Amino acid sequence: MLKITIRRLLRFKKASLLNIAGLAIGIAASLIVFMIIRFETSFDTQQPNYKNIYRIVTQTDYSTGVQYNSGVSTGVPDAIKNEFPQMEKVATLQMIEGAQFSAEENAGRNVEDNAGKNAEENAGGNVEENAGRNVRDNVGKDAGDNIRKNTGNNAGKNTSAKVFKEDHGTYFIEPAWFDLFHQKWLSGDPSQLAAPNTIVLDKTTAEKYFGTWKKAIGQIITLDNKYPLKVAGILDNAPANTDFPLRMVVSFETLRQHPDDYSYVKNDWGGMNGQHQVFVQLPENTDPATISNRLKTFSKEHYTNQLIKVRTLLLLPLSENHFDNRFSYIVPHVSSHTRLLTLTFIGVLILLMAIINFINLTTAPSAIRSKEIGIRKVLGSLRRQLITDLLFETAILVTVAILLAIGIAQLSLPVLRGFTPMPIAVFSIENIVFLFILLISVTLFAGIYPAFILSGYQPLKAFKPAGFSVRRGLVITQFAISQIMIIGTIVAMEQVHLLQSADLGFNKEAVYTVHGFGNYDLNGANALKTRLKQYAGFASITLANMPPTANSNWMDVFYFDQGATPSNYNIDIRCGDADYVRTFGLQLIAGRNYQDGKNIRELLINQTFAKQLGYKDPASAIGHTIKISNTGEWHQIVGVIKDFTNNSLREQVRPSVVMPWREACWLTCIKLTDFKMIDVLKDEWMKAFPGYVFNGSFLTQQMENYYQQEQQLSLLYRLFAGIAIFISCLGLYGMVSFMAVQKKKEIGIRKVLGASVMNILYLFWKEFLTLTGMAFLIAAPAGWWLMNNWLQNFTLRTDVGATVFLTAIAASVAIALLTVSHKAMTAALTNPVQSIQTE
Fold first, then answer.
1. Which of 480, 479, 489 is CA-nearest to residue 731?
2. Residue 636: how many other CB atoms lie within 10 Å
3. All domains of the chain, ordered by start, with CATH?
4. Which pLDDT tens digit goes with each residue over 47-93?
5. Which of 69, 274, 248 is nearest to 168 (CA)?
6. Could you give the CA distance from residue 331 to residue 44 in angstroms, rounded to a whole number?
7. pLDDT digits (tens, 9 = 90+) for 788-808
């Protein structure tokens, strides 16, 4: 049977190639979808206690709505440990954002030698003068002092030092973290992180700084050119499927010793830091609902006497950590269940199209196969034997298609790296099992119908109108799916374009931002701004805490007009000097801008905030006073600015203030008139902050990341719409091939009677235009429903109007006509005498 199948494939090379190609593309698409879904749902499942680990997050209820925060107040961890003895393990983590690390390969050895030498000298002196004192304490103290002194003096000055800006994978962590999350240690153990001024690197980072990870042990890495940290251990590289890719782990005790530089206030209940995270492990068979109810009581007890009394701590299962956008601040790559369901739906549709295409192309040469089946029946073959043989033939074709699909998937994965960071590896046990299940399933689904049709007792009747109606239904299904994909592609592209071109309330073009560092020098920043003003290529310069739109926010309650009662909702806070408005092109609609100066107590509010305060006329808010939190000073409202987008266009505009709090400003933002001036900016910045890494980028580049999921979805729709259209074309080709065989005699007679080529073409066009129209009647409502539901996630959204559907049907008609015309033209130009004689 295998030999017969191979001979048949070689005899009908073109048809076999189209059949296998269509099926291979469909299987490759479904394989890629399976790999993405398997990867996205595997995050941190490798942890032994995955099902029992939870993250504690915060919900704050205001009169204007609910706000979610990925972090907790710094007083929460210790209180949890004391009041929840049933929690087996509690670990705290705080992300280090935008930190700088520098290292010199032999710095650790030199520093230790100097530290040891000085320590011994000091210790000896102390022994002689104070014999009863503890020598070990003095040795430790002097060693630490000398490490700081030697490293601090050399950091950034030695040109051989390696200096890096680390934006991802850097955390302050307690040793207890490794009781919850297991990661292999190549050197050292978690106890190394109990001491201050220690750091643990992963293998790749250690090699980046010191060449090999073994050389890194005992070396010194300086944090923000100020705090020397001794490399006390090496971690194996974190897997790709983790939301906690530990690359540089600094002991939490280091944070406690230097709280001001890293926004840490010990045992604070009034504030909230999104970077400060707490994870807990519950015992087996513990009901999370019971713990959640206890957390509500716990929250009331601890927040009752605080300024914000409406905070509630929640349990977020580790299984949802990768998918919950509300708490995704520290998650480097967040997904969503909706996104995976959409992907699954698309993958199933593509595979279904490939199977339909396979059926159409298999049954198209039915006239030839019917003769073969008839002869085999005359020779005594039973229908059961014929079905088995035809299914075996299908299995062979599917196997070849799967092998080809593996190659297609392997070549396609690098292109899809922008969609998901999954490893590029097709061969795995899970993928092989999936492909085996696919082999069985596709063989049965794609082979049963052709096998029963071709093995029928009256094969010549099997291809009369009844059989043709089934094939019509398959083609309609194919085109309906492809049209749904086209509609989805158009809507997704229009939505992304709308988000990118929408009026944000400020001007993001040509704005270049340079980040500061942990111990940012404001005096140096002011001096830098003064020097930059001398260059004509810089239209405007401001020092700020963040741009108008940012992926992080500072929000707090406020007091109004000297009142003693705080607001029942919070406001969004932006800080910058008096050039903030001009640099970002904010539009004043009432009043004036605030002035520069150390003791200036003025601020601006946006339109939404003015309305929230009860003023229909924005100008009426001018002159009133605002105090941020209970520790700030009273500021006068001197102007109202047009609403600007605070975070992303998925959300409503929040009430906002812009105020001149210079201590919070660690960004230098420049409006450029000449992009060549970036080199000048870098030189001047390096002069102002020698030894620090210049870390700048355009605001437009930063904002592209805000809509990464939408861009990825648009890319996904385009990719799979292209696949759907290609498979549809193959299906149409199979259908028109079948028609050409069935209508061969009819076409010949029509030509003898004077029919033109256009008449013959119209005969084919009419059939397929009818099928395309029927498919559209299915696709239009389905596409509208799917995309309209997706658009509900956005405050600003495009319309799913008539243009979308007209474009979709026009594209479908054009594709159908182009596909059909080639084969139809061949049939129309065939010599009618030859057609009639052959028949």
1. 479
2. 14
3. 1-43+337-463 (no CATH), 50-91+273-320 (3.30.70), 99-262 (no CATH), 476-503+705-839 (no CATH), 517-694 (no CATH)
4. 988 999 999 999 888 777 788 888 898 899 999 999 998 888 999 99
5. 248
6. 12
7. 888 887 777 888 888 899 988
